[in-house]
Specification:
By secondary structure, the protein is mostly beta strands. 0% of the residues lie in helices and 55% in strands.
Length: 238
């Protein structure tokens, strides 16, 4: 029988630094909840809004898979390999920090805010050579269906991740239904609703709620309203 854990929007950690308004689905920085350290190998899911012209100065990471998904606006990325990229709405970026990398992420606009999801997953192999990849994904290709955007298998069409993890996006119109089947036995799925309201195996999940599902290999998802959501499938054991 499937097990569910619901993280309501209002229960997320919250930090407003003026230039940064951030909500944390899991313990992060000044927000600590022993019961919300991670969901399997999913460690961080931050919902960040950065005002125009501001951002995160250069800082180091190692041995973490870091995914950025802009929901509105664009990010300017620079890192210690000399890479300089603009990550736009519709893009998905992944950085394998591996043996160590330093990077900065700034709002690419001086006037408009950027809202993006910052997601950290523990890696499968440690101390790999740092790597970077980004790709644009069409919204039309996820209308009333599921679109893979992150995968350990290149043939799935997503950016590559150093973990047995899959990220998928869907834009589901009211009344429509999709089914998601786990790629790997034993994995769990964390559902994050970007907008709208969906029903997942009988569980109601609203905008900015998170729902963790374990011991289930299939999800039946119905849109109670026009909705956009992210599925993060991850191993549950280190």
């Amino acid at each position: 029988m499937a097990d569910y854990i619901l993280h309501k929007n209002a229960t997320r950690g919250h930090a407003n630094h003026g230039w940064l308004d951030s909500h944390h689905s899991f313990s992060f920085a000044g927000y600590y909840d022993e019961a919300r350290m991670n969901f399997g190998l999913l460690r961080v899911l931050n919902d960040d809004i950065v005002i125009g012209g501001m951002g995160f100065g250069k800082h180091p990471h190692d041995n973490m898979e870091i995914v950025s998904i802009p929901l509105s606006g664009s990010l300017e990325h620079k890192d210690s390999t000399g890479r300089h990229e603009i990550i736009k709405t519709g893009d998905v970026q992944i950085m394998s920090a591996g043996s160590g990398i330093a990077h900065s992420e700034f709002n690419a606009s001086k006037s408009e805010a950027v809202n993006f999801l910052q997601i950290w997953v523990f890696p499968k192999e440690r101390n790999i050579e740092p790597r970077y990849e980004q790709k644009n994904f069409s919204k039309e290709d996820r209308l009333n269906k599921i679109q893979t955007v992150v995968s350990p298998k290149k043939e799935d069409g997503g950016v590559w991740i150093n973990q047995d993890a899959w990220f998928s996006l869907s834009n589901l119109q009211k009344g429509n239904e999709v089914q998601y089947t786990n790629n790997l036995n034993g994995n769990g799925v964390y559902v994050f609703v970007i907008s709208g309201e969906i029903n997942v195996n009988g569980q109601t999940v609203q905008s900015r709620d998170g729902l963790g599902i374990t011991n289930s290999d299939k999800l039946n998802i119905t849109a109670n309203s026009d909705s956009e959501f992210l599925l993060i499938e991850v191993p549950m054991k280190f």
